[in-house]
Amino acid sequence: xxxxxxxxxxxxxxxxxxxxxxxxxxxxxxxxxxxxxxxxxxxxxxxxxxxxxxxxxxxxxxxxxxxxxxxxxxxxxxxxxxxxxxxxxxxxxxxxxxxxxxxxxxxxxxxxxxxxxxxxxxxxxxxxxxxxxxxxxxxxxxxxxxxxxxxxxxxxxxxxxxxxxxxxxxxxxxxxxxxxxxxxxxxxxxxxxxxxxxxx
Length: 200
Fold this sequence. Notes:
- InterPro entries: SAM-dependent_MTases_sf.
- It comes from Symmachiella dynata.
- The chain has 200 residues and is of the alpha/beta class.
- The protein has a single domain (2-199), classed as Vaccinia Virus protein VP39 (Rossmann fold, 3-Layer(aba) Sandwich).
- Helix content is 27%, strand content 27%.
- The protein contains seven helices and ten strands.
- The strands form two sheets. It has a seven-stranded mixed beta sheet, sandwiched between helices.
- Helix 6 (132-137) links the parallel strand 6 and strand 7.
- It is globular and about 40 Å long.
- The N and C termini lie far apart (32 Å).
- The mean pLDDT is 89.
């Protein structure tokens, strides 16, 4: 295992097929978004949105779409989510048919240019991608960014972080304003680091 500072570099990226097979293998059933394991994170992010609900959200790596349901219920009407896993997008479309979803590769999609958005959400995605800086560089300057990365390893992670400073050091160059917060996640002291900023 390679180590860079205290950012732990772990494995190789997984492809779309791997994520779809893993999702189908878990036999996901429709569930309310409050039952989703990252609901605590989604709820924390939603409290950071403007009280007038004037966001237009682009959700990068939206997975099964549960954040879309929560955003709808708090009054965010303009939403577009994408993920490269066909199985996850099929699930999202069937569970939240009133929301817009696309199967798209983050490095090939034109959604960064064609969708009207002022807020990007990117939860538990950057740690899965070797070219994470390239992802952030695709977002329009001035966009509000709400994302997260973990403090723990997993089969599909290419990196994880051991403290807030490492998250800030890795991503600071992309932001005009940046705040990193830490949320507890799990019984073994794991953390989720929340990234909140304005893209430069």
